[in-house]
Amino acid sequence: MTVGVVEGVVATRFAKAVNIGLVAIVGVWHLGLDTVLVLRGWPTYEPRAAAAGAWLALVVIQTAGSVLLLRDVLSGRTARLLAAAALVTGVVATATYPPGGAIGDVSWAWNTVGWFGVLLLVQRPLWELITLLAANTAVTVGFLAADGALDQVTVSRLLAAVYTTAGIQLTFAYLARRLNDGAREATEVAAAQAEHLARATADEAVHAERRRRYEYLRVRVEPLLRGLAERRLDPGDTVVRRRAAVEAARLRRLFVETDDTPHPLLNELRACADVAERRGVRVTLLSYGELPGLPTTVRRELAEGTLLVLAAAGTRARVTVVTTSDEVVVSVVADAPPETLEKAPGPLTVSAVYDQEEDQLWWETRWPLRPAR
Protein backbone atom coordinates (compact mmCIF):
# COMPACT_ATOMS: atom_id res chain seq x y z
CA MET A 1 0.00 0.00 0.00
CA THR A 2 1.40 3.40 -0.97
CA VAL A 3 1.98 6.26 1.48
CA GLY A 4 -0.83 8.29 -0.07
CA VAL A 5 -3.31 5.45 0.34
CA VAL A 6 -2.28 4.97 3.98
CA GLU A 7 -2.66 8.69 4.66
CA GLY A 8 -6.09 8.68 3.02
CA VAL A 9 -7.26 5.76 5.15
CA VAL A 10 -5.90 7.29 8.37
CA ALA A 11 -7.41 10.72 7.68
CA THR A 12 -10.77 9.19 6.81
CA ARG A 13 -10.76 7.17 10.02
CA PHE A 14 -9.93 10.24 12.08
CA ALA A 15 -12.78 12.17 10.44
CA LYS A 16 -15.11 9.27 11.17
CA ALA A 17 -13.93 9.25 14.79
CA VAL A 18 -14.63 12.99 15.07
CA ASN A 19 -18.18 12.47 13.77
CA ILE A 20 -18.74 9.64 16.24
CA GLY A 21 -17.41 11.81 19.05
CA LEU A 22 -19.68 14.67 18.03
CA VAL A 23 -22.72 12.39 17.97
CA ALA A 24 -21.78 11.13 21.44
CA ILE A 25 -21.36 14.67 22.81
CA VAL A 26 -24.73 15.83 21.51
CA GLY A 27 -26.40 12.63 22.69
CA VAL A 28 -25.03 12.92 26.22
CA TRP A 29 -25.79 16.65 26.29
CA HIS A 30 -29.45 16.36 25.27
CA LEU A 31 -30.44 12.98 26.64
CA GLY A 32 -28.42 13.47 29.82
CA LEU A 33 -27.98 17.09 30.87
CA ASP A 34 -31.11 18.45 29.20
CA THR A 35 -33.23 15.72 30.74
CA VAL A 36 -31.97 16.64 34.20
CA LEU A 37 -32.64 20.35 33.57
CA VAL A 38 -36.13 19.69 32.20
CA LEU A 39 -37.06 17.53 35.18
CA ARG A 40 -35.65 20.09 37.63
CA GLY A 41 -37.52 22.99 36.07
CA TRP A 42 -40.63 21.03 35.18
CA PRO A 43 -42.96 22.87 37.63
CA THR A 44 -41.98 26.26 36.17
CA TYR A 45 -42.62 25.51 32.48
CA GLU A 46 -45.85 26.75 30.93
CA PRO A 47 -47.32 25.04 29.00
CA ARG A 48 -45.57 21.86 30.05
CA ALA A 49 -46.80 19.96 26.99
CA ALA A 50 -44.89 22.40 24.77
CA ALA A 51 -41.71 21.90 26.82
CA ALA A 52 -42.02 18.12 26.60
CA GLY A 53 -42.84 18.34 22.88
CA ALA A 54 -39.78 20.51 22.23
CA TRP A 55 -37.54 18.03 24.09
CA LEU A 56 -38.97 15.10 22.09
CA ALA A 57 -38.71 17.00 18.80
CA LEU A 58 -35.04 17.60 19.43
CA VAL A 59 -34.59 13.87 20.13
CA VAL A 60 -36.04 13.14 16.69
CA ILE A 61 -33.85 15.77 15.01
CA GLN A 62 -30.79 14.51 16.88
CA THR A 63 -31.46 10.89 15.87
CA ALA A 64 -32.05 11.71 12.21
CA GLY A 65 -29.00 13.98 11.98
CA SER A 66 -26.73 11.49 13.77
CA VAL A 67 -27.74 8.56 11.55
CA LEU A 68 -27.32 10.58 8.35
CA LEU A 69 -23.96 11.97 9.48
CA LEU A 70 -22.53 8.59 10.46
CA ARG A 71 -23.71 7.09 7.17
CA ASP A 72 -22.11 10.01 5.33
CA VAL A 73 -25.38 10.83 3.52
CA LEU A 74 -26.23 14.12 5.23
CA SER A 75 -26.82 16.48 2.32
CA GLY A 76 -26.53 20.26 2.61
CA ARG A 77 -30.25 20.82 2.11
CA THR A 78 -31.21 18.24 4.73
CA ALA A 79 -28.64 19.64 7.19
CA ARG A 80 -30.01 23.17 6.82
CA LEU A 81 -33.63 22.00 7.19
CA LEU A 82 -32.83 20.03 10.35
CA ALA A 83 -30.84 22.96 11.77
CA ALA A 84 -33.76 25.33 11.09
CA ALA A 85 -36.13 22.85 12.75
CA ALA A 86 -33.83 22.72 15.79
CA LEU A 87 -33.81 26.54 15.96
CA VAL A 88 -37.62 26.72 15.78
CA THR A 89 -37.89 24.02 18.45
CA GLY A 90 -35.52 26.05 20.62
CA VAL A 91 -37.85 29.04 20.25
CA VAL A 92 -40.79 26.90 21.40
CA ALA A 93 -38.81 25.60 24.39
CA THR A 94 -37.67 29.10 25.39
CA ALA A 95 -41.27 30.33 25.25
CA THR A 96 -42.16 27.89 28.02
CA TYR A 97 -39.61 29.31 30.49
CA PRO A 98 -40.76 31.55 33.33
CA PRO A 99 -40.24 35.32 32.83
CA GLY A 100 -36.54 36.13 32.68
CA GLY A 101 -35.63 32.43 32.56
CA ALA A 102 -34.08 32.45 29.05
CA ILE A 103 -30.71 32.39 30.76
CA GLY A 104 -30.79 30.66 34.11
CA ASP A 105 -31.10 27.36 35.93
CA VAL A 106 -34.19 26.15 33.99
CA SER A 107 -33.00 27.13 30.50
CA TRP A 108 -31.67 24.26 28.41
CA ALA A 109 -32.53 24.89 24.75
CA TRP A 110 -29.97 27.58 23.92
CA ASN A 111 -26.85 25.45 24.45
CA THR A 112 -28.54 22.41 22.93
CA VAL A 113 -29.50 24.18 19.71
CA GLY A 114 -25.90 25.36 19.39
CA TRP A 115 -24.55 21.81 19.68
CA PHE A 116 -27.20 20.60 17.27
CA GLY A 117 -25.89 23.20 14.83
CA VAL A 118 -22.38 21.78 15.20
CA LEU A 119 -23.72 18.26 14.64
CA LEU A 120 -25.78 19.10 11.58
CA LEU A 121 -23.55 21.71 9.94
CA VAL A 122 -20.12 20.22 10.64
CA GLN A 123 -19.65 19.42 6.96
CA ARG A 124 -21.06 22.74 5.77
CA PRO A 125 -19.26 26.10 5.38
CA LEU A 126 -18.49 27.64 8.76
CA TRP A 127 -20.59 30.75 8.09
CA GLU A 128 -23.76 28.61 8.18
CA LEU A 129 -23.01 27.55 11.77
CA ILE A 130 -22.12 31.14 12.70
CA THR A 131 -25.49 32.27 11.28
CA LEU A 132 -27.32 29.63 13.31
CA LEU A 133 -25.49 30.52 16.53
CA ALA A 134 -26.19 34.22 15.96
CA ALA A 135 -29.89 33.54 15.35
CA ASN A 136 -30.00 31.28 18.41
CA THR A 137 -28.42 34.00 20.55
CA ALA A 138 -30.81 36.58 19.07
CA VAL A 139 -33.76 34.43 20.19
CA THR A 140 -32.46 34.43 23.77
CA VAL A 141 -31.82 38.18 23.69
CA GLY A 142 -35.31 38.74 22.28
CA PHE A 143 -37.02 36.79 25.05
CA LEU A 144 -34.94 38.55 27.70
CA ALA A 145 -35.83 41.92 26.22
CA ALA A 146 -39.52 41.00 26.06
CA ASP A 147 -39.40 40.02 29.73
CA GLY A 148 -37.58 43.25 30.65
CA ALA A 149 -34.68 41.27 32.06
CA LEU A 150 -31.80 42.83 30.08
CA ASP A 151 -30.06 44.43 33.02
CA GLN A 152 -26.30 44.82 33.33
CA VAL A 153 -25.83 41.59 35.25
CA THR A 154 -27.86 39.54 32.77
CA VAL A 155 -26.05 41.04 29.80
CA SER A 156 -22.69 40.22 31.42
CA ARG A 157 -23.81 36.63 32.08
CA LEU A 158 -25.08 36.34 28.50
CA LEU A 159 -21.82 37.64 27.02
CA ALA A 160 -19.80 35.23 29.17
CA ALA A 161 -22.04 32.34 28.11
CA VAL A 162 -21.76 33.28 24.44
CA TYR A 163 -17.99 33.63 24.71
CA THR A 164 -17.49 30.25 26.34
CA THR A 165 -20.22 28.06 24.88
CA ALA A 166 -20.38 29.43 21.34
CA GLY A 167 -16.59 29.71 21.31
CA ILE A 168 -16.18 26.04 22.17
CA GLN A 169 -18.79 25.06 19.60
CA LEU A 170 -17.16 27.13 16.85
CA THR A 171 -13.70 25.81 17.72
CA PHE A 172 -14.90 22.22 17.66
CA ALA A 173 -16.71 22.77 14.36
CA TYR A 174 -13.65 24.46 12.82
CA LEU A 175 -11.29 21.64 13.83
CA ALA A 176 -13.75 19.00 12.68
CA ARG A 177 -14.20 20.80 9.37
CA ARG A 178 -10.44 21.00 8.85
CA LEU A 179 -10.08 17.31 9.58
CA ASN A 180 -12.94 16.43 7.24
CA ASP A 181 -11.39 18.56 4.51
CA GLY A 182 -8.04 16.88 5.12
CA ALA A 183 -9.63 13.46 4.93
CA ARG A 184 -11.35 14.36 1.67
CA GLU A 185 -8.16 15.75 0.15
CA ALA A 186 -6.10 12.78 1.33
CA THR A 187 -8.67 10.40 -0.11
CA GLU A 188 -8.59 12.21 -3.45
CA VAL A 189 -4.79 12.11 -3.48
CA ALA A 190 -4.80 8.42 -2.56
CA ALA A 191 -7.32 7.68 -5.33
CA ALA A 192 -5.19 9.59 -7.84
CA GLN A 193 -2.07 7.70 -6.78
CA ALA A 194 -3.92 4.38 -6.96
CA GLU A 195 -5.12 5.25 -10.46
CA HIS A 196 -1.58 6.23 -11.47
CA LEU A 197 -0.22 2.97 -10.05
CA ALA A 198 -2.87 0.95 -11.86
CA ARG A 199 -2.06 2.76 -15.12
CA ALA A 200 1.67 2.16 -14.62
CA THR A 201 1.04 -1.52 -13.87
CA ALA A 202 -1.08 -1.82 -17.00
CA ASP A 203 1.62 -0.12 -19.06
CA GLU A 204 4.23 -2.52 -17.69
CA ALA A 205 1.99 -5.48 -18.53
CA VAL A 206 1.50 -4.20 -22.08
CA HIS A 207 5.24 -3.63 -22.43
CA ALA A 208 5.99 -7.15 -21.17
CA GLU A 209 3.44 -8.60 -23.58
CA ARG A 210 5.01 -6.72 -26.48
CA ARG A 211 8.46 -7.99 -25.51
CA ARG A 212 7.12 -11.53 -25.32
CA ARG A 213 5.64 -11.23 -28.79
CA TYR A 214 8.81 -9.72 -30.14
CA GLU A 215 10.85 -12.54 -28.63
CA TYR A 216 8.49 -15.05 -30.21
CA LEU A 217 8.84 -13.38 -33.59
CA ARG A 218 12.62 -13.27 -33.26
CA VAL A 219 12.98 -16.93 -32.29
CA ARG A 220 10.28 -18.59 -34.39
CA VAL A 221 9.28 -16.42 -37.32
CA GLU A 222 12.48 -14.54 -38.14
CA PRO A 223 14.46 -17.70 -39.13
CA LEU A 224 11.63 -18.75 -41.43
CA LEU A 225 11.38 -15.37 -43.11
CA ARG A 226 15.16 -15.05 -43.35
CA GLY A 227 15.41 -18.51 -44.92
CA LEU A 228 12.79 -17.63 -47.52
CA ALA A 229 14.41 -14.25 -48.23
CA GLU A 230 17.85 -15.79 -48.65
CA ARG A 231 16.38 -18.63 -50.74
CA ARG A 232 17.67 -21.26 -48.38
CA LEU A 233 14.09 -22.48 -47.97
CA ASP A 234 11.91 -23.50 -50.90
CA PRO A 235 8.36 -22.06 -50.74
CA GLY A 236 7.19 -25.03 -52.79
CA ASP A 237 8.48 -27.55 -50.26
CA THR A 238 5.63 -29.20 -48.34
CA VAL A 239 7.54 -29.03 -45.06
CA VAL A 240 8.28 -25.33 -45.51
CA ARG A 241 4.68 -24.58 -46.44
CA ARG A 242 3.42 -26.48 -43.41
CA ARG A 243 5.90 -24.66 -41.21
CA ALA A 244 4.73 -21.32 -42.60
CA ALA A 245 1.10 -22.32 -41.99
CA VAL A 246 1.89 -23.24 -38.39
CA GLU A 247 3.69 -19.96 -37.70
CA ALA A 248 0.92 -17.96 -39.37
CA ALA A 249 -1.66 -19.67 -37.16
CA ARG A 250 0.46 -19.07 -34.08
CA LEU A 251 0.84 -15.42 -34.94
CA ARG A 252 -2.89 -15.05 -35.50
CA ARG A 253 -3.62 -16.70 -32.15
CA LEU A 254 -0.98 -14.54 -30.49
CA PHE A 255 -2.61 -11.36 -31.75
CA VAL A 256 -6.07 -12.29 -30.43
CA GLU A 257 -4.88 -13.48 -26.99
CA THR A 258 -5.54 -10.06 -25.46
CA ASP A 259 -8.91 -9.49 -27.14
CA ASP A 260 -11.72 -8.72 -24.71
CA THR A 261 -14.20 -11.45 -25.60
CA PRO A 262 -16.59 -13.59 -23.53
CA HIS A 263 -14.80 -16.80 -24.56
CA PRO A 264 -11.12 -16.11 -25.35
CA LEU A 265 -10.31 -19.79 -26.05
CA LEU A 266 -12.98 -20.00 -28.77
CA ASN A 267 -11.75 -16.70 -30.18
CA GLU A 268 -8.18 -18.03 -30.42
CA LEU A 269 -9.31 -21.34 -31.99
CA ARG A 270 -11.40 -19.36 -34.47
CA ALA A 271 -8.29 -17.37 -35.41
CA CYS A 272 -6.38 -20.62 -36.05
CA ALA A 273 -9.30 -21.92 -38.11
CA ASP A 274 -9.32 -18.73 -40.21
CA VAL A 275 -5.72 -19.34 -41.25
CA ALA A 276 -6.61 -22.88 -42.33
CA GLU A 277 -9.71 -21.71 -44.20
CA ARG A 278 -7.59 -19.29 -46.21
CA ARG A 279 -5.76 -22.33 -47.53
CA GLY A 280 -9.07 -23.86 -48.64
CA VAL A 281 -9.63 -26.12 -45.62
CA ARG A 282 -13.26 -26.48 -44.51
CA VAL A 283 -13.23 -26.01 -40.76
CA THR A 284 -16.13 -26.63 -38.38
CA LEU A 285 -15.86 -25.27 -34.84
CA LEU A 286 -18.28 -26.60 -32.22
CA SER A 287 -18.56 -25.83 -28.50
CA TYR A 288 -20.56 -27.56 -25.77
CA GLY A 289 -20.90 -26.35 -22.19
CA GLU A 290 -20.06 -23.03 -20.53
CA LEU A 291 -16.37 -22.23 -20.73
CA PRO A 292 -14.81 -20.92 -17.49
CA GLY A 293 -12.15 -18.24 -17.35
CA LEU A 294 -8.81 -19.82 -18.27
CA PRO A 295 -5.33 -18.33 -17.88
CA THR A 296 -3.51 -17.33 -21.06
CA THR A 297 -0.91 -20.09 -20.65
CA VAL A 298 -3.63 -22.75 -20.33
CA ARG A 299 -5.46 -21.48 -23.42
CA ARG A 300 -2.17 -21.48 -25.31
CA GLU A 301 -1.49 -25.12 -24.40
CA LEU A 302 -5.05 -26.19 -25.19
CA ALA A 303 -4.88 -24.55 -28.61
CA GLU A 304 -1.34 -25.64 -29.58
CA GLY A 305 -2.17 -29.18 -30.69
CA THR A 306 -5.24 -28.03 -32.60
CA LEU A 307 -3.17 -25.31 -34.25
CA LEU A 308 -0.61 -27.85 -35.54
CA VAL A 309 -3.28 -30.21 -36.85
CA LEU A 310 -5.15 -27.39 -38.60
CA ALA A 311 -1.91 -26.19 -40.19
CA ALA A 312 -1.34 -29.67 -41.64
CA ALA A 313 -4.96 -30.35 -42.66
CA GLY A 314 -5.53 -30.94 -46.34
CA THR A 315 -9.21 -30.28 -47.03
CA ARG A 316 -11.31 -30.62 -43.89
CA ALA A 317 -11.16 -30.31 -40.10
CA ARG A 318 -13.58 -30.33 -37.19
CA VAL A 319 -12.68 -28.67 -33.88
CA THR A 320 -14.76 -29.46 -30.79
CA VAL A 321 -14.60 -27.83 -27.36
CA VAL A 322 -16.42 -29.66 -24.56
CA THR A 323 -16.71 -28.23 -21.03
CA THR A 324 -17.83 -30.41 -18.13
CA SER A 325 -17.77 -29.89 -14.41
CA ASP A 326 -14.37 -31.63 -14.26
CA GLU A 327 -12.43 -30.59 -17.34
CA VAL A 328 -12.16 -28.70 -20.62
CA VAL A 329 -11.51 -30.89 -23.66
CA VAL A 330 -10.34 -29.56 -27.02
CA SER A 331 -10.26 -32.07 -29.87
CA VAL A 332 -9.66 -31.82 -33.59
CA VAL A 333 -10.27 -34.30 -36.41
CA ALA A 334 -8.66 -33.51 -39.77
CA ASP A 335 -7.19 -35.16 -42.86
CA ALA A 336 -3.67 -34.50 -41.62
CA PRO A 337 -0.68 -36.86 -41.87
CA PRO A 338 0.13 -39.00 -38.81
CA GLU A 339 3.54 -37.42 -38.32
CA THR A 340 1.94 -34.02 -37.64
CA LEU A 341 2.24 -34.51 -33.91
CA GLU A 342 5.00 -36.85 -32.95
CA LYS A 343 4.88 -35.76 -29.30
CA ALA A 344 2.67 -33.65 -27.05
CA PRO A 345 3.36 -29.91 -27.61
CA GLY A 346 2.68 -29.13 -23.95
CA PRO A 347 2.34 -30.65 -20.48
CA LEU A 348 -1.41 -31.33 -20.72
CA THR A 349 -3.02 -34.74 -21.04
CA VAL A 350 -3.30 -35.60 -24.71
CA SER A 351 -4.56 -38.44 -26.89
CA ALA A 352 -3.81 -39.07 -30.56
CA VAL A 353 -5.28 -41.62 -33.00
CA TYR A 354 -4.67 -41.90 -36.73
CA ASP A 355 -7.30 -43.65 -38.84
CA GLN A 356 -5.46 -44.93 -41.90
CA GLU A 357 -8.65 -46.02 -43.75
CA GLU A 358 -10.32 -42.63 -43.33
CA ASP A 359 -6.98 -40.82 -43.67
CA GLN A 360 -7.67 -38.59 -40.71
CA LEU A 361 -5.92 -37.67 -37.50
CA TRP A 362 -7.75 -37.24 -34.21
CA TRP A 363 -6.05 -35.20 -31.49
CA GLU A 364 -7.43 -34.37 -28.05
CA THR A 365 -6.13 -32.15 -25.22
CA ARG A 366 -7.59 -32.06 -21.70
CA TRP A 367 -7.35 -29.48 -18.92
CA PRO A 368 -8.68 -30.54 -15.49
CA LEU A 369 -10.85 -27.99 -13.72
CA ARG A 370 -10.50 -29.81 -10.41
CA PRO A 371 -7.24 -30.98 -8.85
CA ALA A 372 -6.59 -34.66 -9.16
CA ARG A 373 -7.34 -36.74 -6.08
Give an overview in words.
It is rod-shaped, with a radius of gyration of 40 Å. 65% of the residues lie in helices and 10% in strands. The chain contains nine helices and five strands.
Structural class comes to alpha+beta
Name the average pLDDT: 81
Query: What is the global morphology?
Result: rod-shaped
SS element count, helices = 9
Characterize this entry briefly:
This protein is α+β, with helices and mostly antiparallel strands and 373 residues long.
Helix-strand layout with pairing:
Blueprint: H1 3-40, H2 48-70, H3 76-95, H4 109-121, H5 126-146, H6 152-229, H7 238-256, H8 264-278, E1 282-288, H9 296-312, E2 316-323, E3 327-334, E4 349-355, E5 360-368
Helix pairs in contact: 1-2, 1-4, 1-6, 2-3, 3-4, 3-5, 4-5, 4-6, 5-6, 6-7, 7-8, 7-9, 8-9
Question: Which tags fit this structure?
Answer:
5 strands; 9 helices; single chain; alpha+beta; 65% helix; 5-stranded mixed sheet; disordered N terminus; 373 residues
